[in-house]
Predict the structure.
Amino acid sequence: MEVILLESFSKLGKIGDVVNVKDGFARNYLIPSKKALRANKENKDHFTKIKQELLEKNSQVIEEAKKKLEKISKEEIIFIRNASDNGQLYGSVSPKDIANYFNEKKIEIKPSNINLHSAIKKIGIYSINIKLHAEVASELQINVATSVENANLQKNEISKSAEKQEIQKDTKKEATSESKETDSLQKNKINKSAEKEETQKAKSKEVSEENKENDNKKTTKSKKIDVKSEESIKKEKDNTVE
């Protein structure tokens, strides 16, 4: 079924887009919740009238979502849980638990706003995705530990690991830069060697041409001498005959 979106969806489209969705999804969710209209002529005309109002309302929702996300980002999210010696939790940390954590701090978040990249069933630091709007989302970290002290230890370990990775990146970057510089020097050396070789070839060619020219001059001079010699012999013969 084709519908006109009245809200923006990250996987469907923006307000006003006409998209094709499954009939059940349209009838059971999008249309009843007033998130979309069936894409017929009457509804298209109606959307044209309410479009500006929807866009203004959407802008307000985005601004509110950004402010809320800014508050969330300032929170250090720590969950204290009981766990076995190998770090296995006696239970898990769910999107509902995380939503309740924020709601207790007067920040309204729904479990549906929270996406766990993996199930949280062991102690550790996890990345989660919080999406408050199709255009407003962020990655956050939650620290799951058996005590506040252990949570701080985990945090410090992560910080050290991050610093180590940065150092390794910088070292690799420097090594790559040095390697490029070495390659550049080698290329320059090769180019200079090639230029020198070309210069030598050119000089050798000039010398060869000069030698050839000198040889031609000598040959021409020798021929002239031979001609003169023949003329002298002929004159002597003529004198003898007389």
In short: The first strand starts at residue 2 and ends at 5. The radius of gyration is 44 Å.
